[in-house]
Amino acid sequence: MDSLDAAALIRPAIPRTSGVWADLGAGTGTFTRALAYLLPQARIYAVDRNASALGKLLRSLHQDGVTVVPVRADFTEPLDFPELGTDPLDGILFANSLHFVADPVPVLRSLVARLRPSGRVVIVEYDRRRANRWVPYPIPAMRVAPLAMAADLTAPTIVATRPSAFGGTLYVAAADRAPAPPLAARRPPLHSQDTGG
Questions:
Q1: What are phi and psi for residue 110, nearest 5 degrees?
Q2: What whole-number distance in Å separates Cα of residue 190 and Cα of residue 161?
Q3: Please, which residues bridge with residue 182 across strands?
Q4: Backbone angles phi, psi at 24, to 5 degrees
Q5: d(C-alpha 10, C-alpha 159), whole Å
Q6: Considering Cα of 8, then 10, then 16, then 18, what sign does the dihedral take?
Q7: pTM value > 0.85
Q8: Which pLDDT score is estimated for 197?
Q9: Domain 3-186 part of CATH 3.40.50.150
Q10: Exposure string over 13-45, b if 16+ CB within 10 A, otherwise e
Q11: What is the pLDDT of residue 63?
Q12: Residue 185: what pLDDT?
């Protein structure tokens, strides 16, 4: 799959406003370039553990108006996004990366906390694919809703699918950061109704 194919695949999941995005597990940048194509004024943090892959990504990027910031890091660990500070992200893309995480809920939950309210999470994964060394922890489409909701996201929508050249089907799921519950729902009652008197 090239970047234009990737852009066509994720297009239905990407909002029309640019903003600040993170591509987690960016590799050599197929989906980073797709995001750059779809969000022409965006700032995109391309996060990967592999410095060589990030170097290749930067050499292959030719998109005017887009700022791509390489971040060599493991997205399962706390992340520092240069120049972002505590400002929130507008979106996070996990393209073929969550299937490397044995327990994705805590990782996803900690990253969702970095999103602005109603920020978007886009997940590209394989359905009907057995575990193997390239996809050690598959996330079938039927498992993406419980995963998203456990990580404080809205119920995801599968917005695109396509057969994978490697077996199974690729799907794209989109979900937003769930609104915080009303303050009253988070506070314990000040006093009990049964005061005994």
A1: -65, -35
A2: 50
A3: none
A4: -95, 120
A5: 8
A6: negative
A7: yes
A8: 47
A9: yes
A10: bbbeebbbbbbbbbbbbbbbbbbbbbbeebbbb
A11: 64
A12: 55
